[in-house]
Specification:
Elements lengths: L5 H12 L9 H13 L4 E5 L6 E7 L7 E6 L18 E3 L2 E3 L3 H20 L6 E6 L9 H6 L10 E4 L7 E5 L1 E10 L14 H22 L11 E9 L9 E10 L5 H23 L4 E9 L3 E2 L5 H10 L4 E4 L5 H6 L4 E3 L14 E3 H19 L1
Parallel strand pairs: 3-6, 3-7, 7-15, 8-14
Antiparallel strand pairs: 1-2, 2-6, 4-5, 5-16, 8-13, 9-11, 9-12, 10-11
Helix pairs in contact: 1-3, 3-9, 5-6
Length: 386
């Protein structure tokens, strides 16, 4: 398995050709993977959505009933809408050692390497199985991996450890931040703007709540710190807002979203409790004294846990051995690693490509990165053969 050979690049071209933007079905790419694995004698199992429009796919190469390592990837990509590409985003283009196309870095490059390694994996006499765990809708909150994780140890074999192949330039990442997202809905009472005291201005009270979030943001910079990250603290920001109907009507509703990128160990639930306490003490009494029907609803819309590998982690040690390094790193973006680890499968993040190329117009991955990843796969096969 030397270099980003013809098979690897051909597989990447096929994978890129599937428009797996998260709002679309991923079934065509899943069927392609399913058929490809079957051609190499590897059975796979789907974990579909209730409507059958999306599915994760899981396969095992090697002995059953033995702990092994899972290679984790997601099949979905972010949209190309509004981006200016020099070529068709869903047609792989090669130029001066770079391979261009949506998902080449995030993360179909890793997926192509895993599939290209399947013939080698199947030829080896593995003593530890290699599992393939490919999910959907990672880009919108690690949605698809959760049902698949729920089947581990039940309908799917539980891996002893997991390598998540998100782009790290083949460095070993043993910690990352985790996004927690909320939606806040403020309900007031409409009134003619000339009689404003008869109404409850939802935008005004939303502003009060956002000011409290601003105070929490400042405190996080001092109290939720970890110098391994950049920036070295948990961040909080307002991400979206809407409200009001006309300039002469007291706004009856306002909705906004906010996100916390938490460092490992941060009590994310404590932020929500503090915000609800502030609303109960500083907002609702005044709002409901005018309009008893006024209220505020704070709803967590998504949570991807931050990730921190355990000290002396077996999978971190394995990944360092496979890449020939002795140093680990922390990143501020999120992956599925924390979800696997929370489910009892120790994890690490290591994959080809640089995060700076992810999600951009003219997304690309260097052929040399695929070369390094294929060497990683060869060494993994040596380890699994034992």
């Amino acid at each position: 398995m030397q270099g980003p050979n013809y098979a690897t690049k051909e597989l990447l071209a096929r994978l890129v050709s599937f428009d797996t933007t998260s709002h679309k079905s991923n079934i065509p790419i899943v069927r392609f993977i399913e058929d490809y694995l079957a051609q190499h004698g590897v059975a796979s199992q789907l974990v579909p959505t209730a409507d059958g429009q999306k599915a994760s796919i899981y396969a095992t190469i090697g002995p059953k009933g033995v702990g092994g390592v899972a290679l984790s990837a997601h099949t979905d990509v972010v949209p190309v809408t509004g981006q200016s590409w020099d070529s068709d985003p869903f047609t792989l283009r090669e130029n001066e050692g770079k391979l261009y196309g949506r998902g080449t870095t995030d993360m179909k490059g890793f997926l192509a390497c895993v599939l290209a390694a399947v013939p080698e994996f199947t030829r080896r006499r593995l003593t530890a199985p290699i599992h393939l765990a490919f999910s959907y809708d990672e880009e919108i909150g690690c949605i698809g991996v959760r049902p698949m994780i729920g089947e581990l140890g039940r309908s799917l074999p539980r891996p002893r450890m997991v390598i998540v192949g998100e782009p790290t330039s083949m460095a070993v990442v043993d910690a990352h931040k985790g996004p927690a997202r909320w939606q806040v809905t403020v309900s007031g009472r409409a009134a003619h703007s000339s009689m404003a005291p008869l109404g409850v201005n939802a935008i005004h009270w939303a502003g009060r709540i956002m000011a409290e979030l601003g105070r929490i943001e400042q405190e996080l910079k001092d109290t939720a710190r970890d110098d391994r990250f950049d920036p070295p603290f948990a961040t909080l920001q307002i991400t979206e807002i809407s409200g009001g109907t006309a300039s002469n009507i007291v706004p009856v509703t306002c909705r906004f979203g906010f996100e916390v990128r938490s460092v490992p160990g941060l009590d994310v639930g404590g932020i929500e409790r503090r915000l609800n306490d502030f609303i109960a003490a500083e907002c609702l009494p005044a709002m409901q004294s005018v309009a008893p029907e006024a209220g505020v609803v704070v709803r967590q819309s998504n949570y991807v846990p931050p990730f921190a590998a355990a000290p002396n982690s077996e999978v971190v040690a394995l990944a360092l051995k496979l890449v020939g390094q002795n140093e680990t790193h922390a990143v501020s973006y999120a992956t599925e690693a924390g979800l696997f680890q929370d489910a009892g499968a120790p994890s690490v993040v290591c994959g080809p490509g640089h995060i700076a190329q992810a999600h951009t117009a003219n997304e690309w991955i260097a052929e040399s990165e695929l070369d390094r990843c294929m060497e990683f796969m060869r060494r993994l096969a040596d380890w699994a053969e034992g």
